[in-house]
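Reminder to self: tokens first, then the designed residues, so the page reads top to bottom the way the pipeline ran.
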């Protein structure tokens, strides 16, 4: 019999597994998201910078691959109402908002029959978001890779957020999860699901550059750096990446501000269309890039030390669920009365 977990998140979405494939920028293609949804998890697409025709194409590709629930992520540092409405018109019924105030968009999403998730970094913020009308809260901890909203670790943040919002609102834990043990841990803390990015960046379907994959597999839990370094195109936004030569040179120079950093403006890579990626630019290390991949923004959470092989999305989901179930069942035997 296939595994199924009985959490508030799973019940609300009608899916069997409390696993969310994070919308890992340009790396999360319809192939990734559809495979996650087909495996029983929740697949997510990143649409923040997508042009209208790209939105239509990606959603059509999703419909070709799955009829199961999936979500769309929109980062609110830019205006997103047009993209939200276009996705609603295309039948999207779950949205994840990040890095901004979702209040103006929540009524639009709800009127279109969609649920809203929003990422928070504290219990107080979680309470405010629930009062605003958010249906699901994503508690993003400091361990997370990519752009990081909060400054609190998973063990402290997740139970605080769960206590703050009560039983009516599902909480998804993000940050530091890469295997079934981590998923079991956050479920024990009261979360209804785990949100994983780094693990899915190292999947067969992800559009990750081969060199980026090599670096992910070689990394330890101590290999990441948290700060504001790769802020070209997204200023003043803290993030976590693998430590590399760009970071080391910047630190050796005394961590100077933008405009005074070593090698600033240098072209590090180009894409197949001739587009240039500059040093310190916030970008995803995609397959189509060529150049000095090692010096780019190599997004990774502290859980990267647990990522040891490239696997198809379905295998990743199956392993996560199977191991989490085994851990929960085994640990239940620790108690004696």
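Designed residues (337 positions):
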């Amino acid at each position: 019999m296939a595994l199924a977990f009985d959490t508030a998140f799973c019940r609300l979405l009608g899916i069997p597994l409390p696993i969310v494939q994070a919308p890992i920028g340009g790396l999360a293609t319809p192939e990734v998201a559809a495979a996650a949804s087909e495996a029983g998890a929740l697949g997510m697409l990143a649409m923040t910078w997508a042009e209208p025709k790209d939105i239509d194409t990606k959603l059509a590709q999703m419909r070709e691959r799955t009829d199961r629930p999936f979500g769309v992520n929109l980062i609110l540092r830019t205006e997103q109402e047009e993209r939200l409405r276009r996705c609603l018109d295309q039948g999207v019924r779950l949205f994840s908002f990040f890095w901004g105030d979702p209040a103006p968009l929540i009524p639009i999403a709800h009127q279109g029959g969609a649920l809203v998730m929003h990422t928070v970094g504290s219990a107080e913020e979680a309470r405010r978001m629930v009062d605003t009308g958010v249906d699901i809260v994503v508690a993003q901890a400091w361990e997370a890779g990519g752009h990081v909203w909060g400054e609190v670790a998973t063990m402290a943040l997740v139970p605080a957020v769960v206590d703050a919002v009560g039983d009516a609102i599902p909480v998804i834990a993000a940050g530091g999860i890469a295997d079934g043990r981590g998923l079991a841990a956050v479920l024990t803390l009261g979360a209804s699901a785990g949100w994983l990015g780094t693990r899915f960046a190292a999947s067969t379907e992800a559009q990750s550059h081969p060199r980026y994959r090599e670096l992910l597999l070689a990394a330890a839990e101590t290999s990441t750096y948290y700060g504001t370094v790769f802020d070209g195109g997204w200023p003043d936004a803290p993030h976590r990446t693998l430590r590399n030569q760009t970071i080391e040179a910047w630190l050796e120079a005394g961590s100077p501000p933008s405009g005074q950093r070593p090698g600033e403006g240098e072209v590090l890579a180009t894409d197949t269309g001739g587009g240039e990626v500059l040093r310190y630019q916030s970008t995803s290390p995609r397959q189509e890039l060529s150049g000095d991949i090692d010096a780019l923004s190599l997004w990774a959470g502290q859980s990267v030390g647990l990522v040891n092989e490239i696997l198809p999305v379905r295998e990743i989901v199956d392993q996560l669920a199977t191991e989490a179930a085994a851990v929960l069942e085994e640990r239940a035997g620790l108690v004696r009365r």
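The radius of gyration is 19 Å.
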